[in-house]
C-alpha cells in the first residue's frame, strides 16, 4: 500500500494538532484511490503525546461527505482526532464497491495513514458494511495473529491485506453472516447488488458504483473473524429496532468472540448504523474506545 504524497510527507515529519483538517487521496494495496479526511481533536492534545485517532468505516451507500458520516465525525472529534474516508465505489473514491470484500484494503490504507501521521493508537469504528470490514481487518492484521497469517491468507485469498491492526475495534449494526435476506431492507439491498437494474439504480440514485463480478473467493464471514481478534478489545453495538439485521446477528458475533476482550451493547430504540446513531451513543462509543485503546 502506497499512500498519496500528503501521507508520504507526514511520514517524514508528523503534523502538529494545530495543522487542522487535512485531505488526502490514498492508494490502496490493490491500486484504488481513496478519498480521505483527517480532523484533529477539539479536546486538544497533539500527536506528540501519542493521542489516539478514530478511523470511521461507513455503511453501504455512505460516503465521506454524507451528512450522517459528518455527524459521526463531529461527535468523535469532541474527544479525539478522526479519520473518515469513502470506500471504493462511493463518493469521490475510485473503483467499484465489492460490498465488504476488497474494502478491507481501503480501511488498511486509512489505518496506515493514521500511523504515518504520528498516531500510535488507532481505533477502528465501522457501521453496517463498515462494521463487517473492521472485524475482518482486525482478524487479518498480522499484528494481532502473526502466527496465523499464513492460514488467514489461505482463507481470504486475494483480500489478505497486510497492515498493522487497530488497538481497539467497534462494530455497529454489523451482520454476522453473508447473504442474509431475512428482512425487506436486506432483500432490497441484494436486488441493488445482484441485478443489473439494481446496480443502475445504485449508481445514479444512490451514487454507489457496484462491481458486478461478485466474490471470488468468498471473504471470511464476520462470525468467523471475531474469534481471531482477541486480545484486541472489541465492542459490538446493535439496536433492538434495527430494520436490516435482527438481534440474532450481534448475539452470534458475541457467542463466537473472546468474552474476556469483547463487550456487547444492545441499544433500546436504536435503528441502523450511522444514520440512526444518536449523539449520546456516539459519545459512549468514543469513551469506551479511548479507555481501552
TrEMBL record:
Residues 141-163 are annotated as: Disordered. It comes from the Bacteria. One of its GO terms (molecular function) is hydrolase activity. It holds the Pfam family Abhydrolase_6. InterPro entries: AB_hydrolase, AB_hydrolase_1, AB_hydrolase_fold. Residues 54-281 form the AB hydrolase-1 domain. The keyword Repeat does not apply. Keywords: Hydrolase. This is Putative hydrolase. It comes from Streptomyces himastatinicus ATCC 53653.
